[in-house]
Every structure is written in structure tokens, then in C-alpha cells.
């Protein structure tokens, strides 16, 4: 059952991503609105979510839906969707944006798909079955104690920057490097695929990270508690020194 759901979700995410990429190359004509401080939404976000919602309803009429733009209830069985995670990147012409989809059942996240259309990459996972890209099992980096590279993301609402600054100071003081991806879901996927040593997303929403969290967990990483509302999450190899840097300030 999970594999069937996953296969259909991959198709839906990649179809939606193809449309998003088409609009990305014509983005100058988009209507852009603000939902708050440095929190944008465009016609592209709304239309991609509409298409995903219609496709999921057709394939899984018994499933609920919660999307960043149209809302809904997180009540299993349901889908939690971010149509364009990394909207600011998208609007500024930066390539790190993705479609993030997570299916939630009574046990928690069961299926996840994160598709980055500009990169032409899709990472996906099903609970207990592993995490993959193009049929190849994801392999995170091994635990290491020096000169690490870590993705940091955070919500720009007032006061959230203090946690980010503390973690940045600790990482740099310990001679590690930071990267700011601009997409919480893709930041986690980069950790799952070994492109960075770990990731931390501060004060993010469930639609931002549930898909990426399951992918990281199925890739074998230590993962912060699943976020069903708003919270902070991390992912790093088991035994990593990042536990002492990223976890205590949650």
C-alpha cells in the first residue's frame, strides 16, 4: 500500500514541479502578496497547490489535505503539502525550491516526496522501506567531529533570529561551516543525500519539513521530533558532534 501511494505521489509532485519550473522562467509577471515579514506568496504557489490538491483528491478521495496556502486539518489519513518550499528563492530566480509532500497516517509520516524541479531531482521515502533518489538508496555522510558543513534555516518572525545567531556562533567557533539553503525541505534532503553533514531548521511549519524529516529518518539520520504544528528540527548522522550544538537550544 505504501509503495502504491508513493508511486502516485511521485508522479503528482513531478507534474506539479514541471508546471512550477515553467512559471519560474516567466516569474516577472507573477502577482506577489505578503503573508508577513519576509513571507511571500505568489500566483505560482496557489496554482501549484491547487493542482496537487485536485490530483490527490482524484487518486485518494478518502484522504484529507493540509496545504500551506489553502489550509486544512492535519487529521490522518491526510497529506501535508508545501507547493513551493523556498518561495523567496523562486521569486528571486534562485534554484533551491521544491515541492514537498508528506502522507500522514495514524502512526505518523508514512510517505514523503520532495521534488526540486530546477535540479531535476526527486528524493522520496516510505516508512520502514528506506529513502531513495532515482531508485538508489540515499547515503548521508558519516559522523565526523571536525570541519563540518551544516545547513541552517529559520523563520524570520521577530525573535527567531537569536537562535540562528547562537548556532552560527557555536558552529563557526568550533571551526565548522554553515550554508543557508532557503528551503527547509531541501536543506533536510541535502543532509539525507550527503551534500552537507547536517541540517537545522528553526521555528518552521509542518508543511515545510514533514516530508524532509521522513526522508532523513529513512536515510538513517538522527532526526528531531516530527513537527505537527510549528517547531524546530534537526538531522545529522548518529554519533555526530552536532547533537551538542543543534539540540540543546530547541
Task: Give the structure's gist in a few sentences.
By secondary structure, the chain is of the alpha+beta class. Helices cover 34% and strands 30% of the residues.
State the main characteristics.
D-Maltodextrin-Binding Protein, domain 2, five-stranded mixed sheet, 7 helices, globular, Fructose-1,6-Bisphosphatase, Chain A, domain 1, alpha+beta
Descriptive notes:
By secondary structure, the chain is an alpha+beta fold. The model has no long low-confidence stretch (mean pLDDT 93). The longest helix is centred in the first third of the chain and has 23 residues. The protein contains 7 helices and 14 strands. α1 runs antiparallel to α2 and α5 packs parallel to α6. The chain has 2 domains: 136 residues, 2-Layer Sandwich (Fructose-1,6-Bisphosphatase, Chain A, domain 1); 98 residues, D-Maltodextrin-Binding Protein, domain 2 (3-Layer(aba) Sandwich), CATH 3.40.190.80. β10, α4 and β11 form a beta-alpha-beta unit.
- CATH domain topology of the largest domain: Fructose-1,6-Bisphosphatase, Chain A, domain 1
Order of strands across the main sheet: 3-4-5-6-7-8-9
Shape: globular
* Structural class estimated from helices and strands: alpha+beta
> In the CATH classification, which architecture of the largest domain applies?
2-Layer Sandwich
The rounded Rg comes to 17 Å
Count of extended strands = 14
Amino acid at each position: 500500500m505504501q509503495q502504491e501511494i508513493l508511486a502516485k505521489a511521485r508522479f503528482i509532485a513531478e507534474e506539479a514541479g514541471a508546471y512550477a519550473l515553467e512559471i519560474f522562467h516567466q516569474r516577472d509577471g507573477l502577482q506577489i502578496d505578503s503573508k508577513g515579514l519576509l513571507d511571500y506568496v505568489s500566483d505560482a504557489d496557489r496554482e501549484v497547490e491547487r493542482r496537487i490538491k485536485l490530483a490527490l483528491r482524484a487518486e485518494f478521495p478518502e484522504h484529507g489535505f493540509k496545504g500551506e496556502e489553502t489550509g486544512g486539518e492535519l487529521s490522518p489519513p491526510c497529506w501535508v503539502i508545501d507547493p513551493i518550499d523556498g518561495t523567496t528563492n523562486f521569486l528571486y530566480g534562485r534554484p533551491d525550491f521544491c515541492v514537498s509532500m508528506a502522507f500522514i497516517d495514524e502512526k505518523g509520516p508514512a510517505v514523503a516526496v520532495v521534488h526540486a524541479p530546477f535540479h531535476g531531482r526527486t528524493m522520496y521515502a516510505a516508512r520502514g522501506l528506506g529513502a531513495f533518489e532515482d531508485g538508489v538508496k540515499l547515503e548521508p555522510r558519516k559522523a565526523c567531529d571536525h570541519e563540518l558543513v551544516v545547513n541552517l534555516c529559520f523563520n524570520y518572525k521577530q525573535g527567531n533570529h537569536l537562535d540562528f545567531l547562537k548556532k552560527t556562533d557555536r558552529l563557526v567557533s568550533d571551526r565548522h561551516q554553515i550554508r543557508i539553503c532557503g528551503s527547509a525541505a531541501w536543506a533536510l534532503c541535502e543532509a539525507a543525500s550527503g551534500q552537507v553533514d547536517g541540517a537545522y531548521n528553526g521555528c518552521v511549519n509542518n508543511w515545510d519539513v514533514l516530508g524532509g524529516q521522513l526522508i532523513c529518518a529513512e536515510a538513517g539520520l538522527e532526526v528531531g521530533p516530527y513537527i505537527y504544528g510549528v517547531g524546530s528540527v534537526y538531522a545529522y548522522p548518529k554519533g555526530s558532534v552536532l547533537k551538542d550544538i543543534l539540540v540543546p537550544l530547541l
